[in-house]
Design goal:
Length: 320
């Protein structure tokens, strides 16, 4: 087992180093056009052909910084700060190898595109971009961001919001947020980046903390504990009982109570009753049966209310 774990760690380290080396090579190589002897021609020459793009670009944060308060010589070039020197492109606009493009149709390598962005936007929450799942799947910065037009309120997103941008690829999560019980993402009270860092993290799946529970505790601090009486599956992982995005069951539960509890707790060992089923529901009572108090309402939590943990001396069964 030790040798297997060591082998996995070595392979992971090699993958990360390979991804980092790719980015470093992109930085060192510089723009494609610069290697072919192109020179800067200035923003006015670009606007002569790209008037429509200029009208949209003028509203963005990049335009205001590059034109009004550039930090270095590269930013003073405005358009060519990102696209590279444009003299050869101006002479032969049909050759896509003479300038860096940020669209799928332009066919500039993703590593080159991202290298241009990371020249300014490296570090910070992008520290773990090399080797991240988005990087290894050849996702370009321009797939999520649109630096040429102010579509979103913040971060130059490709769509109107962070969540809508993520939904371009994550259709399953979009559907889960439409379920009866869900995180308040569609309502705009939170977004995907409250739990995930799309630019890369050391944890899966791009969590902003060391574990699922640590992410949940940022909002649900009352569940953190420590408790005198701890519930083992709760301490292990919140996802043992809850789904992270949405569920058709109450409280984002993975299944309805008491079926959820019965996945671990056999009623024959505790309650002197048969296996709880539909015969004890409120619907069965309408048909002439008897509603079981262990099935209706909050089911098991009618009695075991402190199911996440209890600090009461008599709370061994989470009843207080």
């Amino acid at each position: 087992m030790k040798s297997q774990a060591r082998s996995i760690a070595v392979n992971l380290a090699r993958a990360c180093l390979s991804a980092a080396a790719t980015l470093l090579l992109a930085f060192a190589a510089g723009p494609v056009a610069a290697q072919s002897g192109a020179t800067y021609i200035g923003e006015k020459a670009c606007i002569n052909c790209h008037g429509q793009e200029n009208r949209h670009f003028g509203e963005t944060l990049h335009a205001k910084i590059f034109r009004m308060n550039p930090k270095n010589e590269a930013e003073r070039q405005v358009c060519e700060a990102c696209h590279g020197p444009g003299s050869l492109h101006a002479k032969n606009t049909a050759d896509k190898n003479l300038i860096i493009g940020f669209t799928k149709r332009w066919n500039t390598p993703v590593e080159t595109q991202n290298g241009q962005c990371l020249n300014c936007h490296s570090g910070g929450n992008r520290l773990h971009w090399p080797g991240s799942v988005h990087s290894t799947n050849k996702l370009g910065c321009a797939d999520c961001h649109n630096p040429m037009e102010k579509i979103s309120a913040t971060s130059l997103e490709a769509r109107q919001s962070i969540s809508e941008t993520c939904y371009q690829c994550h259709q399953q999560q979009r559907a889960e947020f439409r379920k009866r019980s869900h995180m308040p993402v569609p309502e705009g009270k939170m977004s995907c980046v409250d739990c995930h860092n799309p630019h890369g993290t050391p944890t899966k799946p791009l969590l902003k903390a060391d574990s699922v529970n640590e992410v949940c505790y940022t909002c649900h601090a009352e569940r953190r504990g420590p408790f005198v009486w701890e519930h083992a599956p709760v301490r292990e992982n919140c996802l043992n009982c809850h789904t992270p995005h949405g569920s058709n069951h109450d409280k984002l539960l993975v299944s309805a109570r008491p079926l959820l509890c019965q996945q671990c707790h056999d009623p024959r060992g505790f309650h002197p009753a048969t296996f709880y089923n539909a015969s004890g529901t409120a619907q069965a009572a309408l048909a002439g049966g008897a509603a079981g108090p262990r099935v209706i309402g909050r089911s098991c939590q009618n009695c075991h209310s402190q199911i996440h943990g209890s600090n009461h001396p008599a709370g061994t069964r989470f009843q207080r």
